[in-house]
């Protein structure tokens, strides 16, 4: 939509289609002398348009003493002061003189406050551009007060910041190392063999490595707040995908708490079993220990001891690794040999290098799905980017180093355990042989003097890396250290997930993308801790702990994490491919195509793991995506989807330049002169029914703050496809001329001008009538079609909207607020509207203030426009089985037929029957009807009722001619003075008057309009809509009052809406295929 703002140089105010008036001089006496002088002073040739009234940021208010106060102040001495503007000493250093202009400063771009320091603000363009030097002196801003200096001098409290090692690398390594490392990696090596285990590890590391590169790029493209993965994806891809993946990622972290806790409980249960202790049975023991453990972890999280716990866990894990490596070198004792450990042996390495699948999980992707959760946890650094000393360096370096070291540790452990321990062993020290032989002996242990054939054949072996999950403890030099390492890895990962899940969920709740979850977003304490989300994550973890089976929980988590990683990689690819200027990551070592590969591989592996789980995960994503698309939350994060939409729209618009216009592709693209859309809803809903692109104009003098936003919101809420913009012009016709020539982009340009009928043309000053008719002439000159809509009760619904406005209080009351309100927006239609406005508002004549050609009358809440229940219009309601009567009197190219056809395609008007009326002769009625019917049939419009009107050529009734003459009488030249000399003066002063010669030249057309109105009254009293050809008045031959009299006569006394239509005489319908 296009917004025309009229800024005049005098005290005259123009309201389109309503009135023109000039305020008396006593109103200007309320203004300061210099302001009045500036308004009377003519504009200098080298000065541009005065746009100061467009600055909605500077609202004016009425204080207790009657002065206007606000962001700028007008005092009795005409001094201007800016509370937030201060001349910077830095500007004097850089520029050599003191000025309001400020040098670059961090505070200008930051949206956060620093405790203990006053945040500086950049001077606005209004402050820099306005002529304030005469009042305050050159470059004088408000000096910085001593209190401000004192506050500025206070050093800001600097929170503890982490480097890349302790802040990112250690956190990521602790999250990556977990239960799978100690309890399942030896078992996976036994199943898949060392070779395929390395393939699984490397593929997992490639996925996490590519995701780490993508994460580094996204995280260094701006400050990442709380929310981790959700924040990264939602701010990159938008709320549609970001919201769904945030919910899934928070759930996955809650389930990961259960997985790591079950691993911890499983280790404790094995220790109890080795010592002959049990509470109930193995499964229930794991459940009991798991619930107790996760409860303790919840207490640790709420107490805030997370970082101290991480340091301790990391040291324990490193010590356990050292104990394991040392244990592989120490020669094996007989007890360890009975359990399958023989130190490094080439034969054991060769035997364990190839796979040996066993059990229901015995497959490559089965092992992959169990192992993959051990490669996750790479986002721990990005989650705390706000606490890092230098996130741009710390996140990429720490994340990638964590992936490297953990991958290396997995490769080393799988190779060493596969080189030292056989797959099956009985643990019985009596299963030795006198001489090592392979005769009648199965297994690699035979060549070392051990015979485990009996348990291998009976599938009863309890040791070996295939059967004993605690193989690393058995190999270790000090077994309790491995147990301590298991505790450290499982508890640290569980603690990290238990902290991450509530934080992500809290961020999601605060964005209010989904209903019923806002309860969990409430924070407590100075750190805004989400205690309610903690309890929700705890409840989910307990539910999955009750499964008590690690191999069942791990594949569930794998799909959720792969889904998250796929979207992270796609976010990086999408942000890169859109070439948005806002995509400027500090980390440069990434590739958009590598990110796309990572996204595709992640999705493929999801289906290879568990196809039904992948379908569920994608189904949840699509469901949540559809919900957000349906609800359309009011968030604006500058996502890559927005950038992509802009690129696609721009490319398509440019592409249309290579496509020639064709009649088959013609559609009405309307430039609507509606004023505020909510004030003339009938015009807007008509265009909505036509399914056409439209631009709406609002003609006024001064712009309120947020007025354009409220109007756009009004249109968007009702699904009206339109554009809205602002144009500053001296008067209505000039503004419309600018829009007629400049509206649109490329081939997406308006081709039809839509406006309301000027019902007050007889009360308005003749110059306004001349401008109104001149707009129609301008549209025809520029090859526009024209539509004029008239309703019986009028189009302007502003008086009903007026009840929802907040009127001005008396100026002596406290907290008075008066906002700039242009006359053209004020709902008045009388000959002298200003004084009526005063009486309606209860103001005296002297209480009306004027500021730069805008009357300060009333303050309207922008949200009130949206909250108001819109008046009922015929175009909003469902129509019964009525008729749309089309009077195709003049062939304009088919626009008069196309518009009714488009209306009947809408559900609300689908039951209406279209009747087409054409002029004709009584002796050839059937032939003419058949000819028109054949033509309409070729157009495939499905109009089956055509009526010929031979009576259209008859003379109108005398009483109706008399009414027309009375209507035009005030504008006749001979009505003023019969004297010849005076008559010449009248011609010069009033060129819009209608002469006898002009009346005689247009007599036939005048009688045609009178007769046509008689026919409309006879045939279309009960129609739902009347569409009739708009008469065309020749420029210079048909005066403006005469033309308005035609429109008035043609459409008066009709109950149905009347739409006067005239195309540009070019075909808009065709019956050809090409």
UniProtKB/TrEMBL annotation:
GO terms for biological process: cell volume homeostasis; chloride ion homeostasis; potassium ion homeostasis; potassium ion import across plasma membrane; sodium ion homeostasis. Residues 697-813, 868-1073 form the SLC12A transporter C-terminal domain. It is a multi-pass membrane protein. The keyword Cell membrane applies. Residues 167-671 form the Amino acid permease/ SLC12A domain. Residues 94-135 form the Amino acid permease N-terminal domain. Keywords: Cell membrane, Chloride, Glycoprotein, Ion transport, Membrane, Sodium, Sodium transport, Symport, Transmembrane, Transmembrane helix, Transport. Residues 132-158 are annotated as: Disordered. GO terms for molecular function: sodium:potassium:chloride symporter activity. Gene3D superfamilies: Amino acid/polyamine transporter I. It comes from the Eukaryota. Its main location: membrane. The chain crosses the membrane at residues 195-221, 241-265, 286-305, 311-330, 364-386, 398-417, 477-501, 531-550, 556-575, 596-629. It is found in: Cell membrane. GO terms for cellular component: apical plasma membrane. Belongs to the SLC12A transporter family. PANTHER family: SOLUTE CARRIER FAMILY 12 MEMBER 3, SOLUTE CARRIER FAMILY 12, CATION COTRANSPORTERS. This is Solute carrier family 12 member 3. It comes from Denticeps clupeoides (denticle herring). The lineage of its organism: Eukaryota, Metazoa, Chordata, Craniata, Vertebrata. The gene is SLC12A3.
